[in-house]
TrEMBL record:
A single Gene Ontology CC term: toxin-antitoxin complex
Keywords from the UniProt entry: Hydrolase, Nuclease, Nucleotide-binding, Phosphoprotein, Toxin-antitoxin system
Protein name per the record: DUF86 domain-containing protein
Family annotation (InterPro entries): HepT-like, HepT-like_sf, HepT_RNase_toxin
Source superkingdom: Bacteria
Keyword DNA-binding: no
Pfam families: HepT-like (PF01934)
Length: 108
């Protein structure tokens, strides 16, 4: 669990960064602001990498989170960087990250 706590800290830290990056920003502004899109992409990469490193036991005990999808997003961003779908990223950030944060905050 100690290693998991470190990864959870990184995930929560990056979720908070994304929240700061997107404060007061609507989708149209997001997609037209390269600094913000790149910052959010990088935070999602870190979240995905940290999720990959969580123990199987932790993931098994928190099945409500689609861990494979969380980790897979990182791979999509890194390996398909010429074709990043910002609508998908926006939807994930708006819909899925709050749920992930709520699940993990109790382990902080």
């Amino acid at each position: 669990m100690d290693n998991d706590k470190a990864y959870i800290f990184h995930i929560l830290d990056e979720i908070e960064n994304i929240e700061k990056f997107l404060t007061g920003i609507e989708f149209d502004n997001f997609v037209n602001d390269t600094k913000t899109t790149k910052a959010v992409e990088r935070s999602l990469e870190i979240i995905g990498e940290a999720a990959k490193n969580l123990s199987e036991e932790f993931k098994e005990n928190n099945k409500e989170i689609p861990w494979r999808d969380v980790a897979g997003l990182r791979d999509k961003i890194i390996h398909h960087y010429f074709d990043v779908d910002y609508q998908t990223i926006w939807d994930i950030v708006q819909r899925n990250l709050p749920e992930l944060k709520e699940t993990l905050i109790k382990y902080k």
